[in-house]
Structures are given as C-alpha cells and as structure tokens.
C-alpha cells in the first residue's frame, strides 16, 4: 500500500486572504486604466502597487506560499534545461522539413497508385 500524502483543509482565513489578493491585483489593473489621464509613472505605480499588495497578501496564506514555492521550483527546473544551440536547432528543423517532404511525396504517390489500381484496373473508369 503506497503512502498517500495527506492534504489538510485550509482555514477560511486563507480563503479570505486569497480573495483579497485577487481583489488587490484587480484593483491595480483597474487603477492603471482608471488613471489614463495621469502620467505614465502614476499609472505604472498603481499597477505595480496593486500587484505587490496582491503578492504580499497571498504570501501570508498557505496556498499562496505553496503557489509561490511551486513557481520558484519551476524557474529553477527551467534553468536546468540544456537548450540546443542555434546550429542544432536549424539542423533539427531541416530534418523535420525533410521528413515532412518525403512523407508528403510518399502519401501522394500512394494516393496516385491506389487511384490507378482502383479506377483504371479494377473499375475500368478511364479518365
């Protein structure tokens, strides 16, 4: 029998904090558009302020901390990926295009062969 992780039910306070964080993020976006007649710096400050407040509120809840830790782990794993060089990427792309071309020719040839066999030889429908 495998050990299943036990997931505890969060307190209603955590749910309220998540709702407040979402509302703070929405308030920042609404403030950005509501202050359209103000300077760009003021608009950006409203947006960034709302997002920072949302992150700060979310950080205090258990699910918010779990999400932020998950995000950090995802970034850490992305940094471990070995990305191909430009030359390798171009070579792989050329191989894929070549394979697609060969398959297209093969399928076209198969279609034409079946057309000749079925319509001309078996059914006798000459064009």
From TrEMBL:
Location(s), subcellular: Membrane
| InterPro entries, alphabetized | SecE_bac (IPR005807), SecE_sf (IPR038379), Translocase_SecE/Sec61-g (IPR001901)
Q: What transmembrane ranges does the database entry give?
A: 18-35, 41-62, 89-109
One matching Pfam family is SecE
Q: Name the keywords, alphabetized.
A: Cell membrane, Membrane, Protein transport, Translocation, Transmembrane, Transmembrane helix, Transport
What the protein does comes down to: Essential subunit of the Sec protein translocation channel SecYEG. Clamps together the 2 halves of SecY. May contact the channel plug during translocation.
Similarity comment:
Belongs to the SecE/SEC61-gamma family.
What binding partners and quaternary form does the record give?
Answer: Component of the Sec protein translocase complex. Heterotrimer consisting of SecY, SecE and SecG subunits. The heterotrimers can form oligomers, although 1 heterotrimer is thought to be able to translocate proteins. Interacts with the ribosome. Interacts with SecDF, and other proteins may be involved. Interacts with SecA.
The identity of this protein, by name, is Protein translocase subunit SecE
């Amino acid at each position: 029998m495998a050990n299943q992780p036990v997931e505890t039910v969060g307190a209603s306070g955590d749910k309220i904090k998540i709702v407040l964080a979402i509302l703070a993020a929405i308030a920042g976006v609404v403030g950005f558009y509501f202050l359209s007649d103000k300077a760009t710096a003021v608009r950006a400050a409203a947006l960034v302020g709302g997002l920072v407040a949302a992150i700060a509120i979310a950080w205090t809840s258990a699910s918010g901390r779990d999400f932020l830790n998950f995000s950090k782990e995802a970034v850490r794993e992305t940094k471990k990926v070995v990305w191909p060089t430009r030359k390798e990427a171009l070579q792989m792309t050329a191989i894929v295009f070549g394979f697609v071309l060969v398959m297209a020719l093969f399928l076209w040839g198969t279609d034409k062969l079946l057309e000749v066999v079925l319509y001309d030889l078996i059914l006798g429908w000459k064009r």
